[in-house]
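Q&A log
Question type: sequence-to-structure
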Amino acid sequence: MLRIALATCTATVTLAAAETLVEHEYGLNHKQLDDGYPYEERPVVAPTDPSFAQGYFLKNAAEGPDNARCLDGTPALYYHRKGTGSGANKWFLHQQGGGWCYDLGSCVGRSKGSLGSTKDDRNTSSLNSGYMSTDPAVNPLMYNWNAVELRYCDGASVSGDKVTPTTFQNTTLHFRGRAILDAEIKSILTDRGMDKATDVIVSGCSAGGLATFLHCDHWAAAIATATTNTAKVACMPDSGFFLDEDRSPKYGSNMRNVYDFQQSSSAGLNAACVAAHTATGDANKCIFAQWSSAHIKTPTFPLQSQYDAWQTGNVMGAGDAATQNAFGVNLTSIVKAQLLSQPQHGIFLDSCHHHCGNWDSSLIDGDLSGVALNKWYTQGSVALPNKGFYNQDKPFPCNSCCTPTLPCSSTEFCCPDAKACLTPTGTSCAKDAKACSAGQICCPFTKECVTASHPCTPVRECKNTEFCCPDAKHCLTPVAPGTMCDPADKAACPSPQVCCPLIKQCVTVGASCDPSSDEAPAFMAL
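Response status: OK
Response body:
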């Protein structure tokens, strides 16, 4: 997640919230298998707000014969934000993450918080960030689609299929993840109108990303039946490609234990994977994306770090550069051998050290993840020059891999201080920084209210006191920052100064900052 500290016109990067969802719910001594899924506080918004999402508790499914219950017996829950315009019949489904309970004791603890219960959940939520953003610049493919967040409360990436409850430490536990999944699918199709869908993307991050790998084909089959094979379905798991390794953290053993006591099976995992591995006596491999990905038929485009920050400490067990680089090479080779062995799949595999929260924060083959997803989904892997394999492939550590630098548009300039593309508003803030409206800041460089978009790399030919004007293609220096002029008035600035149309201020013109052009600025003719 990119954040630009505009108040000082200086760019900084943060990748995720410091607190994970598990830590927020259960404290630092939580005794859970924490997957690093970031905690995000959702605001309460009015029903008229574009981000408003209504909650639906599946009480009938919990009380019916399928016993679709969270760990503590409460009903499953999802939130739905309605699509608009061209997105009215298009759907984005996000499965929440939050780790796993790896033994009965940790499941008892989990049942007493939001990752094992919905007893304290609100009736409404707000969905408007990352791949659920309503901003087309941030989310070009899905900004106006129906958005659904599926609450996570079973502790096993909705894979458990144990018929009878389990009692441990005087607590009754329900391992009914697969029943929850089927109840959610049925409700969204029949009650919310997804049976009329033209497009569906199934997603999730971390444990929810793993759930996407495990259940992608199951979602696709149910949607195909409901829509009589007319809907286009794809999957986009985020940070869910956990490797099946058993180094000192014992992640592999812990997940196999989850498979055993939650009684995951072909009903709770990818059926084709289970069938293939039952013959070899290792069906428990199918609780890992590493193995199940080879059997996914539905087009899938994961968002994944080569150096997943959570796997550094919880799968790999060590964070030194040599070990991390070897881990990344191995993960890449497994992705190519398992998932990318089928041409319908692609991946956005970055080299930023992160886990979740990296939407539009890495640039690969000239594209951010939002644009890459749009190209892959609309054109398909085969039609893309990289065949859908967006591979950053840089050695660890790579801080620059976490910060995209793109050219500024013709209405922006790359601020040499902020190193971000800024759009001038024409409002001076030289006398009062509070003159800027909400969402704007007073840029110290030009003393003008501006808005910021993405990071950029300032053109090196310009001095620190200049900026490269995209219209002029020359380095310009504001003469009296914050003093505005009228570009249409040829006498607005004393010669040899000119009134720059972009920032509407008098500037002096320096050297060319576009190697392809030494022509004088277009506005010099004014």
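Response note: Residues 1-17 have pLDDT under 50 and may be disordered.
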